[in-house]
Design brief:
single chain; alpha/beta; five-stranded mixed beta sheet; 7 strands; globular
Length: about 180
């Protein structure tokens, strides 16, 4: 039986990791991708847990099933997290028409400020080396947000505020 796939994306600093953990807490998700090496704690906040896909990371942002399934050993829906899915949303829909896609949006400067507060380039997991410096990071946050908003507009998705993070918007695509 093929796994149920849920692609999840948001720009760095969009608070997407905490929202992802809330989603996975439902009990319907395979969290076997969580290991001590795939964990980053940020003070009192949840930080990052589980596999992240992307440039310079353990798993590339590839839509190949063997890559997507590599970090998992359990059963349940697999939440595939990557900032880079923002650039591949139409490809995801084409290759996995029965998947779920959740988009998170937060204004560019709020993303950058939160990401810096959460540790910035000192974050130990996942790897943010590809972003090089704060200027490149802000530019890439803007590009990812642009693609997220463009996809949501194209598919007429409805945005909802997340109660625990009033300045974060969430939209979900499901065919």
């Amino acid at each position: 039986m093929l796994p149920v796939r849920h692609f999840f994306t948001g720009a760095p600093g969009s608070r997407w990791s905490g929202v992802a953990q809330d989603i996975e807490a439902s009990g319907f998700y395979d969290t076997s991708d969580r290991t001590p090496e795939r964990t980053y704690k940020h003070n009192e906040f949840s930080g990052h847990v589980g596999a992240y896909f992307g440039t310079g990371m353990e798993f590339p942002a590839s839509l190949e099933p063997e890559v997507l399934d590599a970090p998992y050993k359990g059963i349940g829906t697999r939440l595939h997290k990557s900032h880079e899915w923002a650039y591949m949303l139409d490809d995801i829909v084409e290759q996995y028409p029965n998947c779920w896609i959740t988009l998170l949006y937060r204004e560019d400067y709020k993303c950058l400020n939160w990401w810096l507060q959460a540790g910035g380039f000192d974050i130990t997991y996942p790897n943010y080396d590809m972003y090089q410096n704060e200027s490149v990071m802000l530019s890439m946050i803007g590009a990812q947000n642009h693609h997220i908003l463009e996809f949501a507009h194209k598919h007429r998705l409805t945005w909802h505020h997340i109660d625990s993070h009033a300045d974060v918007l969430k939209a979900t695509w499901k065919q």
